[in-house]
From TrEMBL:
It is a multi-pass membrane protein. Signal peptide: none annotated. GO terms for biological process: membrane protein intracellular domain proteolysis; regulation of response to endoplasmic reticulum stress. It is found in: Endomembrane system. This is Membrane-bound transcription factor site-2 protease. Residues 134-426 form the Peptidase M50 domain.
Length: 457
């Protein structure tokens, strides 16, 4: 459910902007000066929408569009090929996502969306409020890079560039470029394809760049952080079973969970998932000590000093007078031993998933105490959002759907490929209309059902 405070803040803010705009535009004293101010600043205000357009970046776009013409020709030609492939691929991806959603609805499991490649994201529902900064920053950067691609490609193809702008719709930021429509219509269909495909092409490249940074991050941060020796605790929730005097603390380094070695955060999640799937592990305990385990303090010490085992055979190899004692606990709950030297092992009793999400960890361990333990996590999180959102923007914009880049990509593609096959332009436009209608229906169905799945959790 969407948090009420978020709804109140958003609606209250937009209502205040709308009322102020309505007052100033209806006021005899302020109307002219207010409208002149909006015009001079390139601002346009409408309900839940603010738009800003400027020409201050025009010279920069013309400089980029005229830099190394041959390289840009190859660059945007590759983008054209990618855009065409993405247009057809987006239809397949949306179709597959729609089938998965329908299957989940029929199976009455609306909350299980982990296997879907595309998901509808709603702040406060399946997007934590704490992650909003990453989310909107990644959306904004992806949108700007998308529009920069269109603008530079247009200048490269000698289409007049009128201006660049940004907007805010409800909560979502974005960008746009203003191109001279007459020039755009006069260039060839192939040139149009280079311009229309440039946005999704640049989003794809941005996603690849984010993936590359994420992959090489240990190398970039090597002088300041080291990896591969454990997972650093960066946060422990106050109500988590892992908190407390005998629990985990910030800057502890987790090296092992049960008999599973931990070298990074991925190991932490993999080990806990494996523990939840397998039967409770046992501990090799001396037969004399075993008789005294009805005292909790002795039981804790015995387990902390014992080796893990699955049967008595495992214990006989290490200690002849010991047996494999398996704790008797409820189904799905586990007794888990977490090693975080030099402190004593932490013993956790409960559901592994509660331990997993009650503790935040990082694979990067500072070489010096003055270094932040959160910086690598912030970079990792931002890169992951940038990869997913820039990729999603590329896929969605490539869909042959009304008002998206896919509409113009499809139109130019049909003109470039079927101009000599379907001679009548009206017939080509009719074919394009039915394809756009199908793509729009497919996208709408995914969004509507995706929202239903999210809100039905």
């Amino acid at each position: 459910m969407i948090p009420v405070p978020l709804v109140v803040v958003v609606l209250g803010g937009w209502c205040a902007i709308y009322l102020a705009d309505a007052f100033l535009t209806s006021s005899k004293s302020y109307k002219n000066s207010y409208e002149e101010w909006l015009s001079s600043k390139g601002l346009t205000i409408s309900p839940f929408h603010i738009r800003w357009q400027t020409t201050i970046f025009n010279r920069l776009f013309y400089k980029w569009g005229r830099w190394k013409p041959h390289f840009l020709y190859i660059w945007f030609s590759l983008g054209m090929v990618f855009g065409i492939i993405a247009m057809f691929g987006s239809i397949f991806l949306l179709g597959k996502t729609l089938i998965q959603t329908l299957n989940q609805m029929m199976a009455e499991s609306p909350g299980n969306q982990n296997d879907q490649m595309l998901q509808v994201v709603v702040p406060g529902v399946n997007l934590p409020i704490s992650q909003l900064t990453y989310f909107f920053s990644a959306i904004f950067i992806s949108g700007v890079i998308h529009e920069v691609g269109h603008g530079v490609a247009a200048v490269r193809e000698t289409v007049r560039f009128n201006g660049f702008g940004m907007f805010m719709f409800v909560l979502y930021p974005g960008a746009f470029v203003d191109l001279f429509t007459t020039h755009l219509q006069l260039v060839s269909p192939v040139q149009q394809l280079r311009i229309f495909c440039a946005g999704v092409w640049h989003n794809f490249i941005l996603g690849v760049l984010g993936l590359l940074i994420l992959f090489l991050l240990p190398l970039f941060l090597y002088p300041f952080y080291y990896t591969g020796v454990g997972a650093l605790v960066t946060e422990v929730l106050e109500d988590s079973p892992a908190s407390g005097p005998k629990g985990l603390f910030i800057r502890d380094i987790v090296t092992q969970v049960q008999d599973c070695a931990i070298t990074n955060v991925d190991d932490w999640h993999t080990c806990l998932d494996d523990i939840s799937q397998k039967p409770q592990i046992g501990y090799c305990i001396n037969t004399l000590t075993l008789q005294q385990l009805h005292f909790p303090s002795r039981a804790r010490k015995a387990i902390q000093a014992s080796l893990e085992c699955r049967s008595n055979i495992d214990c006989r190899k290490a200690a002849p007078n010991s047996v494999c004692a398996i704790p008797s606990i409820e189904n799905q709950t586990r007794l888990i031993r977490v090693k975080h030297p030099p402190q004593l092992d932490m013993l956790f009793i409960g559901f592994p998933v509660h331990l997993e999400y009650g503790v935040s960890l990082s694979s990067f361990i500072p070489r010096y105490k003055i270094l932040s333990i959160d910086l690598p996590v912030m970079i990792e999180t931002f890169c992951k959002y940038l990869i997913s959102l820039s990729g999603a923007l590329a896929v969605i914009n490539a869909v042959p759907c009304f008002a998206l880049d896919g509409q113009w990509i499809l139109s130019s593609f049909l003109e470039a490929t079927l101009g000599s096959v379907i001679v009548e332009k009206e017939n080509r436009e009719l074919l394009g209309f039915f394809i756009l209608l199908g793509g729009s229906t497919l996208l709408t169905a995914n969004v509507v059902l995706g929202l239903w799945m999210v809100t039905a959790r």
